């Protein structure tokens, strides 16, 4: 199993309950550097000082959607282009999946996020980041 202690994870979801559960799972998986945000504005501001190599982002948020957040962050904070993006969503609609793939995201997790699915996604992302020299 991959060691996740070298990951720097940003969690963005407008529901504090979801970020709390994800943080508990990330703790259990050994992720030491992580930050959570409940709005796109908070997340954008944090990117001035925080360079995550994994972003777990909700798609449906009140202030904007995850797609727009990633597009804007890639322009305003180019270091985010080195991060693996994993979308969190309650949608399994193929149109969402197609849109996410077109944006070049590393994956998506259906809500409610299951521990084994999170671990599998982080393992895949960790391996890809390591192989590409981004970790």
The CATH homologous superfamily is called: Response regulator
Number-wise, the strands total: 5
* CATH top-level class: Alpha Beta
Uncertain residue ranges: none
User: Structural class, from secondary structure content?
Assistant: alpha/beta
Report on this model:
The chain has 135 residues and is of the alpha/beta class. It has a single domain, classed as Rossmann fold. The chain contains 5 helices and 5 strands. The chain has helices spanning 16-29, 40-46, 66-76, 94-102, 115-131, and strands at residues 8-12, 33-37, 54-58, 84-89, 107-110. It has a 5-stranded parallel beta sheet, with helices on both faces. Helix 1 links the parallel strand 1 and strand 2 (33-37). The longest helix has 17 residues, at 115-131. The radius of gyration is 13 Å and the shape is globular. The mean pLDDT is 93.
Topology of helices and strands:
Layout: E1 8-12, H1 16-29, E2 33-37, H2 40-46, E3 54-58, H3 66-76, E4 84-89, H4 94-102, E5 107-110, H5 115-131
In short:
It contains five helices and five strands, in the order βαβαβαβαβα. 43% of the residues lie in helices and 19% in strands.
Provide the descriptors you would attach to this structure in a database record:
single chain, 135 residues, alpha/beta, Rossmann fold, 5 helices, 43% helix, 19% strand
């Amino acid at each position: 199993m991959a060691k996740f202690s070298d990951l720097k994870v940003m969690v963005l979801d407008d529901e504090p309950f979801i970020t709390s559960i994800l943080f508990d799972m990330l703790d259990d998986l050994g992720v030491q550097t992580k930050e959570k945000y409940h709005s796109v504005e908070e997340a954008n501001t944090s990117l001035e000082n925080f360079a995550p190599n994994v972003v777990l982002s909700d798609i449906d948020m009140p202030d904007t959607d995850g797609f727009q957040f990633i597009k804007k962050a890639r322009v305003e904070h180019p270091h985010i282009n080195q991060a693996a993006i994993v979308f969190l969503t309650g949608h399994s609609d193929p149109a969402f999946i197609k849109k996410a793939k077109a944006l070049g995201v590393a994956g998506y997790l259906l809500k409610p996020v299951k521990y084994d699915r999170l671990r599998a996604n982080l393992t895949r992302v960790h391996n890809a980041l390591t192989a590409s020299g981004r970790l």
